[in-house]
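for the recovery benchmark. tokens below, seq after
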């Protein structure tokens, strides 16, 4: 979720910084240029004041003109700025360099015409850092007796102006980059603070879904809404656990209470059988149904105990346990004419040894039950590449199951309609799944080519603490 939320926050913050940065950069450039314009206008005003006293009738002998030429020449030599005073007919009163003439087109001509109208150049076009050959032209009128008699024009290079603008922009960029880094760090902390409760809630939900019903969320951090959600989740989990506990207790009590009446009933059936002729089919049928009912009650009691008991996980050699169960079931397989083989290398995993043995017994028994004589049942222990668990695969060559039946296998009391005449209660695989789930394992079913069923028993390779603890809080774990 962070990978989706964090880019949105970063894009939003980048948009805000850019929306602030561009106007600030434009304002900085305008401010720097305005400083230059004001300075040039001051210089132009000083030259215009000197030009007011230059004689128009005797220009060649006017000392003021000589002084003005000297001022303009010094100004050009010191600052590298071309400057000149031009009459209305474009003739030069004084200029530096001497061969410089008033521009005939472009921004210089526009400024010259505005000055002839009595207006100073207050707002020339903006100069940008990438305009390498741009120049700044300023014009100011020379007024004598209320009339504009000449125009002072300055033509300045913009290298220093562009450099100052660029340095200012670099400072703005550095400031925005630093602000962006701070914003990204804050976004990481914010998304972590907001989403950590969600991750913890997801982990605890997974624990409960896999059978660890005592997992709870410690609502000690995060936004108030998520803390309330954690409290509601814990209350819901408590109610679910209470309901399941009542269900287990009912099943266990019912199974236990029915055992004694059933035992008395079976005893009475045996006494009745003694009074009847040997080989009575009705008595044999009643005996079979009584034994089946007794098996169902035993399985129900085992299921209730499996759901109630906590798994005692330890590091076990899964291969050794599987090899032991294969050896124990091989006489049964031989009596039925089924070949039972095992490839059980030394592989360790975390499991309850008793629960794992019981699960393998149920799966192997189920495979032998449905495999016809002359066929083979294989038990293979392996660690799939990149897998987090140890797999024990029991593959038989029986009739197998259809896709619809594969979906329902493992449900309580469910049996395929094609196998109703085979001994069983339909609870063996349900008990197996409960035993494995309590230890963080699992049970999966798939077709076995060319025919048969593959049952995969999985136990985790990592210790319980490495897979995520219980009672995790919204704060630091």
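predicted aa per position
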């Amino acid at each position: 979720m962070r990978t989706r939320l964090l880019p949105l926050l970063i894009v939003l913050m980048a948009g805000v910084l850019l929306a602030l940065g561009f106007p600030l950069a434009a304002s900085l450039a305008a401010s720097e240029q305005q400083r230059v314009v004001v300075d040039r206008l001051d210089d132009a005003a000083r030259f215009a004041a000197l030009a007011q006293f230059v004689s128009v009738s005797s220009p060649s002998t006017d000392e003021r003109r000589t002084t003005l030429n000297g001022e303009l020449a010094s100004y050009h030599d010191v600052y590298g700025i071309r400057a000149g005073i031009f009459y209305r007919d474009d003739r030069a009163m004084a200029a530096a360099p001497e061969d410089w003439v008033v521009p005939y087109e472009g921004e210089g001509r526009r400024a010259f015409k505005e000055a002839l109208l009595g207006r100073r150049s207050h707002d020339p076009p903006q100069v940008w850092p990438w305009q390498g050959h741009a120049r700044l032209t300023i014009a100011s009128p020379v007024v004598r007796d209320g009339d504009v008699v000449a125009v002072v024009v300055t033509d300045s290079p913009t290298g220093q102006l562009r450099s100052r603008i660029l340095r200012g922009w670099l400072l703005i960029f550095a400031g925005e980059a630093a602000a962006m880094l701070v914003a990204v760090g804050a976004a990481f902390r914010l998304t972590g603070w907001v989403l950590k409760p969600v991750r913890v809630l997801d982990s605890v939900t997974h624990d409960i879904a896999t059978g660890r019903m005592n997992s709870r969320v410690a609502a000690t951090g995060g936004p108030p809404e998520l803390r309330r959600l954690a409290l509601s989740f814990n209350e819901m989990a408590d109610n679910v656990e209470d309901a399941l506990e009542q269900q287990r207790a009912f099943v266990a009590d019912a199974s236990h209470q029915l055992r004694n009446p059933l035992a008395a009933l079976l005893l009475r059936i045996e006494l009745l059988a003694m009074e009847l002729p040997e080989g009575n089919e009705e008595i044999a049928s009643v005996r079979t149904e009584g034994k089946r009912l007794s098996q169902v009650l035993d399985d129900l009691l085992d299921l209730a105990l499996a759901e109630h008991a906590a798994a005692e996980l330890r590091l076990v050699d899964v291969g050794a346990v599987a090899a032991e169960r294969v050896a124990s079931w091989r006489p049964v397989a031989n009596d039925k004419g089924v070949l039972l083989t095992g490839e059980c290398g030394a592989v360790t995993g975390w499991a309850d040894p008793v629960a794992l043995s019981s699960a393998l017994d149920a799966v192997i028994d189920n495979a032998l039950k449905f495999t016809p004589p002359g066929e083979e049942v294989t038990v293979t222990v392996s660690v799939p590449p990149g897998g987090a668990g140890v797999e024990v695969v029991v593959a038989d060559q029986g009739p197998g199951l259809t896709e619809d039946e594969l979906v329902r296998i493992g449900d309580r009391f469910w049996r395929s309609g094609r196998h109703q005449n085979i001994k069983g209660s339909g609870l063996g695989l349900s008990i197996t799944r409960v035993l494995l789930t309590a230890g963080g394992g699992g049970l999966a079913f798939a077709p076995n080519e060319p025919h048969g069923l593959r049952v995969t028993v999985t136990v985790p390779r990592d210790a319980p603490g490495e897979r995520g603890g219980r009672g995790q809080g919204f704060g630091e774990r």
